[in-house]
Design goal:
Layout: H1 3-11, H2 44-69, H3 83-91, E1 98-100, H4 106-111, H5 116-119, H6 121-124, H7 133-136, H8 148-161, E2 168-173, H9 180-191, E3 196-202, E4 205-206, E5 209-210, E6 231-235, H10 239-254, E7 260-265, H11 284-291, H12 295-305, H13 311-332, H14 342-345, H15 353-396
Parallel strand pairs: 1-2, 2-3, 3-7, 6-7
Antiparallel strand pairs: 4-5
Helix pairs in contact: 1-10, 2-3, 2-12, 2-13, 3-10, 8-9
Length: 397
Amino acid sequence: MTGMTGIAGRASDPDRMLPSRAPVMHIDPDGRPTAADQAGLPAHEELLRGLAGMVAARRFNEQASALVRQGRLAVYPSSFGQEACQVAAAQVLTDDDWLFPTYRDTAAAVARGVDPVDVLGLLKGDWHSGYDPYEHHVAPLTTPLATQLPHAVGVAHAARLRGENTVVLAMCGDGGTSEGDFHEALNFAAVFRAPVVFFVQNNQYAISVPLARQSAAPSLAHKGVGYGIPGEHVDGNDLAALLDVLSAAVERARAGAGPQLVEGLTYRMQAHTNADDATRYRADDEVAAWAAKDPLLRLEAYLRAEGVLDDARAASFTEAAEQVARRTRDGLNQDVEPDPEDLFRFVYAQPTPQLVEQLDLVRDELSRDALSRDEQSRDEQSRDEQSRDEQSRVETR
């Protein structure tokens, strides 16, 4: 059963809104198609585009992690191992659609077209967001769990009221489904039929808490039925299946069928962040088992077997990824001189009286500091001149 057939059929029948019994998979971990007729598989060009994006995403993850060790980033939540989910989320959207990412979805933002240096601005500490959300229709990276989901629903609902053809894809992790914002967002979206796709990347852990300690549901995709939202779960390391299922969900939402819920089963190969020690709560053999399901190796094996990927094209993907890493490295290695007035400049389009008052106080304090530094500099210069004069008189004697 393909994602398109499955989710569409269930959505038309309220008694069949539950996800398929097994997660949708089109390419197995060894790179072989799961159906003899290759039903549901996207076109080769779409898969090649996705592989290029995943190669770039992995290199971006590696570079960002290196920048943490070099002191250029304060923290980095890696999506190493989740590249298929990251790239598919960006690839199924049109330019007019919106992506609402979490703090771990930096690679998805880059795949959507946001400058990688700007994406990491928040994690470096330069900016609250780091980029213009309207340029590529990518909302700011969200650190609090699930708080972006009601915002995503609001954007989708507003688009529907305006008669726009916009779909919003809202990402969250398995830990986010335990937050109240998740349930409130699903309920509002369902009641008002907002064109939003909730995409849960189930990477098995909410920091150190395993999924079994978060939910007793058969799957996170089952949570949609309680709100009247059709759900589907998919192998989150199979880019082909992700593109199929997510594309179906996006187009259903665009066609007026209301919100959709998709769960991607994947794995966080590295620690939660550089401040985490994942060896304290998961075993090496567990990690090794998921490493054997690597999304990049799986898709590459399939495309090579199909005869559409050769060494030359693979090398071009690697070189393009290295350019992303180089851009990231060069940009993050530049020091930024902060402007204190930016704290007030970008809060509201029309500053409130309180902000104006606070800005004036900061300007006054900075002016006093500048005067104090000038006076100190003049005093030091005067002392130096006196010292030279005294030394000159001593030498004259």
